[in-house]
Amino acid sequence: MDDSGHWLAAKHMQAYALEATTAYRVGAAAEGWVERFNDDYVVSGKTAEARAALAEGLHAWATSTGAAVGRIFARDLPLQPSERDVPELLSGDAQASRQTVVTEGAMRCGIDFSGGYSTGLFLDQRHNRALVRRVKPRRLLNCFAYTCSFSSAAALGGGQTVSVDLSARALERGRGNFRENGIDPAKHRFLAQDVLEALPPMLERDERFDMVILDPPTFSRGSRGQSFHVERDLEPLLGAALELCAPGGRVLLSTNANRMDDRDLEGIARRSLRQQHRAADLYREPLLVPVLAGHVAHTLWLNLR
After folding, report:
1. Are the C-beta atoms of 199 and 209 separated by less than 8 Å?
2. Exposed (0-12), middle (13-18) or buried (19+): which is 150, by Cβ within 10 Å?
3. Residues facing residue 160 across a β-bridge
4. Given this model, what pLDDT does residue 293 score?
5. How many helices (H) and strands (E) does the chain have?
6. How many CB atoms lie within 10 A of CB 4?
7. Crossing angle of the two packed helices 262-276 and 230-244, in degrees rounded to 10
8. Is 117 strand, coil or helix?
9. Residues 6+ positions from 300 with CB-CB distance below 8 Å
10. CATH class for domain 6-97?
11. How much is the mean pLDDT over the chain?
């Protein structure tokens, strides 16, 4: 469109409509991005100027494509987690519910624009959730599960899931997502625990999983006040996950840490595999649309032999 960013082409919008996907990123620039949730949009930018430019670009994109625009929310992209705040309503009906349900193909997911910094679904992981739905793992362990979208994807394929997150509130939203998809959450496990404390008992019980999802926050504090730093702790976390992964299984390694890149993930994966005397093919699932490039989590799949 112009130099304000890269915007979703009409052909991609048509493809989303055909597969009944109503949540996706529509535009991205150097300082942020715009995401669609049904007819509501969230503008995420590093500065007020970036957010204003992206909002202007959104209106131009909607005019050129005929996309409906209901409400527009905005949030900043701070460096520190403590500076994160809920999205602010810029335009649209202030009285309308801040909760909605979006679809990603056959999967439904609850969205809450007032529930915190994140809405409930990380759109930059859509290609990896699509792989989960395609592979249909029989047993999936979802660490740092948040609202359990990876677990929902596996459960829709008939898999048994274990979702672990320190936030009981996030897991309750995950149970809600299961119910939205017609899945009985009582037939799956939801553990409101520190991941590092939850994994050793599973190993003691000789549990094994066909797929393990590792998408930790950059920084967090555990139930006893201990800190988790992804740069320091991702490698031992992967080692524990590999012990729980069955032969021929898969592990997703993912991070949004600014100081880590694809090479860092590959180094962590190779060192952990050597320490565990395991072999795996390292693989990246390709992005489904190019507008996401440059603003996505670094991810790496370990396909164990």
Report:
1. no
2. buried
3. 139
4. 67
5. 8, 17
6. 17
7. 40
8. coil
9. 252, 253, 254, 262, 265, 266, 269, 282, 283, 284
10. alpha beta
11. 93
Residue 2 has pLDDT above 50, yes or no: no
DSSP 121-187: --GGGHHHHHHHHHH--SEEEEET-TT-HHHHHHHHTT-EEEEE-S-HHHHHHHHHHHHHTT--GGG
Q: Which of 180, 182, 198, 201 is nearest to 190 (CA)?
A: 198
- Which pairs with CB-CB distance under 8 Å and at least 24 residues apart come from 274-277? 275/239, 276/239, 276/242, 276/243
Q: Which CATH number is 123-304's, of 3.40.630.100, 1.20.5.110, 3.40.1190.20, 3.40.50.150?
A: 3.40.50.150
Beta carbons of 49 and 103 less than 8 angstroms apart: no
Give me the amino acid identity at 121. Answer: L
**Alpha helices (runs of H) in the chain, residue ranges in sequence order:** 10-18, 48-65, 126-135, 149-156, 168-180, 195-204, 230-244, 262-276
CA distance 137 to 250: 9
End-to-end alpha-carbon separation of the chain, Å?
Answer: 45
Domain residues of the chain, as ranges? 6-97, 123-304
- Identify the residue whose tokens are 């991005």: 33
Strand partners of residue 250:
211, 303
Task: Report the 10 Å Cβ neighbour count for 18.
Answer: 8
pLDDT for 242-255, tens place per residue? Answer: 999 999 999 999 99
- The yes-or-no verdict on residue 217 having pLDDT over 90 is no
Q: What angle do CA 222, 42, 48 make, to 5 degrees?
A: 90
Question: What pLDDT, on the 0 to 100 scale, is given for residue 133?
Answer: 97
Over residues 154-164, the pLDDT tens digits come to 999 999 999 99
Alpha carbon of 43 to those of 40, 77, 125, 153, 292: distances in Å?
A: 10, 10, 18, 26, 14
Per-residue pLDDT at 1: 40
